[in-house]
Amino acid sequence: MYLIQKNLTRFFNSHSTYFLNPHELKQVASHMKKNEYSIYTPYPDSEKNILYTGSIPQVLLYEIICKSPLRHQDILGTMYSLNIASDLFGDVVIHDYHYYVFILPIVQNYFETNFLMVRNSHVELKEIPIDTLSKYERNYEEIELIVSSTRMDAVLSSLLHVGRGKIEVYLKKKEVLLNYEILKSSSYKLKEGDTFSIRKIGKYQFVGIIKNTKSDHVIISLKKYT
Question: Which pTM value belongs to this model?
């Protein structure tokens, strides 16, 4: 409820929200009329977007320059370790071995001053034109699995090659998100378009059931975010 009120207050005072993931955006938008807002998307398939009215909100794009390869989760981890709230920056994009992050101007000075290393690697920041990634399209790895059902525990067990007991450990540690919320029940049956992620492992979208097998299992299709 705090997040909703925070963004509604900002919207009506400053004519735009902070960055919102799909679940948050839906929650905030549910308190508005459809003709009250537009949605700013930094690139066509962006995950975190902004609700606004009037002028397009100002967003900055930085390239993170590093001599060593970086991982998406390491860049995110650095952002969080600096106590930069998740709604103050947008997507982290890795494209052709280049690393980018969208941020809001209110955090610019702090970001430039403190974002100096990712894990053990020194990095440099370069502000670049916001339209650099305007035609960027996210890449996915397509995965097919044979599972006993579309229940989360069955899918995660097959995907991670671990027993269902280990899946319950992930849940207890709150390391699995379903549609951007902590997964509370491993018995949840996936629906087409559902998105789930496992901390430090990856993020996936459930595409759907491809077909049933003779042994009463199903072959499902997933997209892994890369």
Answer: 0.82
